[in-house]
Amino acid sequence: MASPVMTDDKFVSTPAAHVHENPLLGSLRSIYQSVWDRRDALGLPNPGSFDNISREFSRDVSLSNFMFTGLRAEWSKPFSNSPIFHLSHQLSMGAQAISPYTFSALYGTSKVFLQGTWELDNSLSARSNYRWHDSFITKTNAQIAPGNAMLSLENDYTGKDFTASLKAMNPSIIDGGIKGIWMASYLQSVTPSLALGLEMVWQRVAMSSSPEAMIQYGAKYKGQDWIASLQMQAEGPQGTGLSSTYWRKLTDKVSVGADLNLQFAPGLGGQAGLLGGGLQKEGSASAAAKYEFRASTYRAQLDSKGKLSVLLEKTILPAVRITFAGEMDHLKQQTKVGVAVSVEAMSEDLMEQAEKGAISAPSPPL
């Protein structure tokens, strides 16, 4: 950048010098630096991403992401811990939504994470994450199935006290306009315990259809041994929604949680609501608990529709794990059962290195 220079014992002013000497810009820089210093002095923590605002409940005690039916057998083979390189084979019976056979390969370093999956019906999926630096990660997810394809691009920036994300699903500009689903989210810590954020969604399925937009607000509060979250979806194509979760660590081995979901959408009858239609109201609630034994983990969940779910993960040997899943729907009089066996065939050299801590596994950009 140009600056004042001295020629024949005289200073010659350049355009850059006028910018630096401008009192208005100098005041703005001073205000910005003062605000930034005050914000830095608060020592606010990073709240995580908006997508994971309720991760303590959904990934720790809730059974929504753990339940399965039928029989499963999984065999995985780690070839290296640094870099991470694993291959796995999975067989499944009795579950319609899961392929009878799945092959998966995984590779990871501190900067790169790659994962590919092939299923028996010739469906392919691939994940690719790249860490440009400690704060910025690009994520790519592609899926190809008979008659269907999906592409997802995401960029996450993690600051000291905030996380910003930009995501696009099936983006396209080749049909004379913008199509796809575009999402932007931001979550900011405002106190050491409270974080506030929002997510904006814009989508257009085809150029012949009108675009739709939606905005969602979120809040997360962290206590000494509990975390609560609240999300509110402003009125959109599917109405207005409200979702809240509560998670608490009772002891080192016991965690509990609960969630509540409410949905308000325009109906067809009645006098109130949109265009004279009635307001359709739907809601659901669930309570879940997790207990960790020495060599096993037990989870249970009961929802407002009378569905009771349980999951027991038992480690038989260091490389063998058995999982039992059961679900009973009292209103529909239905019962589902699942059993899974997982075997990790780690070589003796890798086991010895892991026990001695000779090789530390890298932390891939997940």
Describe the structure.
The chain has 366 residues and is mainly beta. Helix content is 12%, strand content 57%. It is built from four helices and 21 strands. The protein has a 19-stranded mixed β-barrel. It has a two-stranded antiparallel sheet with strand order 1-2. The radius of gyration is 26 Å and the shape is globular. It starts with a strand and ends in a 10-residue tail after the last helix.
3D shape: globular
Helical coverage, percent range: 10-25%
Distance between the termini: 39 Å
Number of helices: 4
The SSE string, one letter per element, is EEHHHEEEEEEEEEEEEEEEEEEEH
Radius of gyration: 26 Å
- Main sheet properties: 19 strands, mixed, barrel
Total number of strands = 21
What is the beta-strand fraction? over 45%
Mean pLDDT: 87
Spans of at least 5 consecutive residues with low confidence: 268-276
What class do helices, strands and sheet pairing give? Answer: mainly beta
Topology:
Layout (H helix, E strand, L loop, with lengths): L4 E3 L2 E3 L2 H7 L1 H20 L12 H7 L8 E12 L2 E10 L7 E8 L3 E8 L4 E10 L2 E10 L2 E11 L3 E11 L6 E11 L4 E11 L7 E11 L3 E11 L2 E11 L4 E13 L12 E14 L3 E8 L3 E11 L2 E10 L4 E11 L3 H9 L10
Parallel strand pairs: 3-21
Antiparallel strand pairs: 1-2, 3-4, 4-5, 5-6, 6-7, 7-8, 8-9, 9-10, 10-11, 11-12, 12-13, 13-14, 14-15, 15-16, 16-17, 17-18, 18-19, 19-20, 20-21
Task: List key phrases describing it.
single chain, 366 residues, mainly beta, 4 helices
